[in-house]
Amino acid sequence: MGEQKLHNAIDETFSAIEPTLSERIRSHVSLLPTLKQFAHERENILLDLKEHSVLSGGKPAYFELWGVLEKHRLPTAQHCERVAGYVRLMGSYLDPLVEGNASLQHASRLHDIGKLLIPEYLLKKKELSSFHRMLVVEGHAVLGEFLCKYLGIDDPSVRNPIVYHHDVKDGYPHNLDKAQSILDDGTQRVIASDMQDSLVIGDLLSFADSADAIVDPSRTYQQHLTPRAAFERLTDITHKRGIFPQRYLDALDKVLLNHAEEVDEMYSKCQFDI
Ligand SMILES: [Fe+2]
Ligand SMILES: [Fe+2]
Q1: 13, 27, 144, 151 - which has most CB atoms within 10 Å?
Q2: Mean per-residue pLDDT for 14-22?
Q3: How many angstroms is it from 140 CA to the middle of ligand 1?
Q4: How much distance in Å is there from the Cα of 93 to the middle of ligand 2?
Q5: Ligand with smallest separation from the Cα of 170
Q6: Cα of 161 to ligand 1 centre, how many Å?
Q7: What predicted TM-score, i.e. pTM, was given to this entire model?
Q8: Residue 166 CA to ligand 1 centre (angstroms)
Q9: What percent of the chain has pLDDT over 70?
């Protein structure tokens, strides 16, 4: 895909989402061509994505796509892998919709794929201007949606958890009303019915994402915590903000009690030095 075509595709994606955000993110994207170093980096990434994106049968090659993430954004790939690990382990304490759910595993391993289109130096930088911070924080979700489209990830059970993994807890990039988007036991969602199943299980991805983000040693803006200390903090946040069902906390508690070795093993592979 040529540079102009890529920008047209990004514009098309942005114009389809909430206008204020489109405007804000669009201004970031217009900055990207001026980042010469990144133009080259992005070209290589897009080539790799193109090469590894589709299996001969026409289905997206999810594992190969994770490999592209691993090659170009190792800490992000490792974070995604751990999130998939939490989702898998928690699944055995939750309902059958989640346990062994292959689509949710694919979505978990690719949920931050949008970071491939954000310059690596911004992902590594300790201090970010509010401008760049928004590009990293909100922009990666928008760019993830763009990449789903670009890579032909249109199976809703994989695509929706990727696209909405921040809407559930942070309300971006689609500005879904949090009260509507959060499902608690017995609470009805007010969203398009074809998204409901994906979003219900997407909640779990979102929860696991938070569980790891609190521990993640590659996030330089926070102190390193053990998974158990992170759990205490997540419990606090969850109760204060009224997000996520209690059963997710209960499931994570069991995972930390009964699968401590596996959880330690997940963190032993991380890249600590960025
Ligand atoms: Fe994310
Ligand atoms: Fe994440």
Answers
A1: 144
A2: 47
A3: 7
A4: 22
A5: 1
A6: 11
A7: 0.80
A8: 6
A9: 69
**CA dist., res. 231 & res. 226, Å (int):** 9
Distance of CA 57 from the midpoint of ligand 2 (Å): 29
Summarised one tens digit per residue, pLDDT across range 151-189 is 888 888 888 888 888 877 777 777 665 434 444 443 434
pLDDT at 3: 53
Please report which ligand is nearest the Cα atom of 108.
2
The tokens of 5 are what? 């075509």
Tell me the domains of the chain and their CATH numbers.
Answer: 3-174+186-267 (1.10.3210.10)
Q: 220 CA distance to ligand 2 centroid (A)?
A: 15
Q: Which of 65-74, 153-162, 191-200 has the lowest mean pLDDT?
A: 191-200
Whether 134 contacts 98, CB under 8 Å: no
Shortest-distance ligand to the CA of residue 166 = 1
How far is the centre of ligand 2, averaged over its atoms, from the C-alpha of 214 (Å)?
11
DSSP the chain: --HHHHHHHHHHHHHTS-HHHHHHHHHHHTTGGG-HHHHHHHHHHHHHHHHHSB-TTSSB-HHHHHHHHHHH-HHHHHHHHHHHHHHHHHHTTS-TTTTT-HHHHHHHHHTTGGGGGS-HHHHH-SS--HHHHHHHHTHHHHHHHHHHHHHT---HHHHHHHHTTTHHHH-TTT---HHHH---TTPPP-S-HHHHHHHHHHHHHHHHHHHHHHH-TT-TTS----HHHHHHHHHHHHHHHT-S-HHHHHHHHHHHHH-HHHHHHHHHT-----
Mean pLDDT over each residue of the chain, to the nearest integer? 75
Q: In this model, does residue 18 exceed pLDDT 50? A: no
Closest listed ligand to the CA of 169: 1
Q: How remote is the CA of residue 144 from the centroid of ligand 1, in Å?
A: 9
